[in-house]
C-alpha cells in the first residue's frame, strides 16, 4: 500500500490493488478515468470505500483529486479512488464530499476493475415498457424559455427548509388528498385570468426542479385543504403530495394521484430525468430530482410527505420504490 501512495501513477489500464470492499480487504484499482473532483468541504481520504476502514489523511476543502476509477459499495454509496493533485497520495473519497465532479472515462466507463454494473436497463426488470413519445400538442411550439420566471429562491419567504432525511412510505401507505377541483383560494378573478395563460404550457426540467425547491425551502406544510403560492406567486396549489407535483409542473389545477397520469406517460426506470414523477396511483407521488449513484439504482426525490413530515428530500432505492408499487412517469409537456 505504501508503494501505491508514494509511487508513480501507473499508465492507463495498468491494474493495482488498494484496500477496499467488504471487510476492508483488497480491491483492484486502475486508472480508468481522466476526470477529477473538487472537494466542497474538508474530508477524509479513506483506505477503503467505507467510513469504518481507516483514514490516510484529511484533505482540505477546494482540493482537486484526480479520479482513477469508481466503485459502488455494499450500501449503494459511490466512492472514487483518486490521486490528490500535486502529490502522489492516493485513496478512497466519498463522492458526496465533492462540490464539482468532472468525469472523463477512458475505459470501462470509469469503473474500477470488476465493478461495472449491468446495463442500466436491467433495473427495469418486468416493468420495462416500450416507451412512447408524448402526444402532440398545439403548445409544443411555444418556447419554454418564455413560460415561467421561476427562480430557485422566493425572496419573499424565509428559507427554513424541509426534512433532508424523509421517511420512506410503507407499502400500504395512502396519502390523504383533497378534491381535485377545489377553488384556487386567494386568487382574484382578474389575477387568475392574467396568470392562467402561463400554466399548462411546456416547461423546462430546470424550472420544474426550481419550483419544487422553492416549496422545500419554505417547508410548505402538508394539508388536504390548504393552498400555497408557487415561486412566482402566479397561482396557488393544494399542499398535499399530488398538489406539490401539480405545482412543480405548473399545471392549471391541483390534480390527484388518480389523475396525474392524464397529463403524463409511462417511462422506464432507467429513463428517469429531473422533474419526472414516481407514482403509485391512488396512494402517493414523488418528484424525481436526480440519480444518487452512478449505477442508477438509487435516486434523490422531493415530496410533500404527510401531515407529520411535510416537505421531504431524501434518497430512495429503485428496488424499494418498485416493491412498494411505484412506477415512473413523465409529464407530457416537460422539456430538456
Automatic annotation (TrEMBL):
Tell me the classification of the organism that encodes this protein: Bacteria, Bacillati, Actinomycetota, Actinomycetes, Micromonosporales
Instruction: Name the InterPro entries on file.
Output: Papain-like_cys_pep_sf (IPR038765)
What keywords were assigned to this record? Signal
**Signal sequence bounds:** 1-20
Q: What is this protein called?
A: NlpC/P60 domain-containing protein
Origin species, per record, is Dactylosporangium matsuzakiense
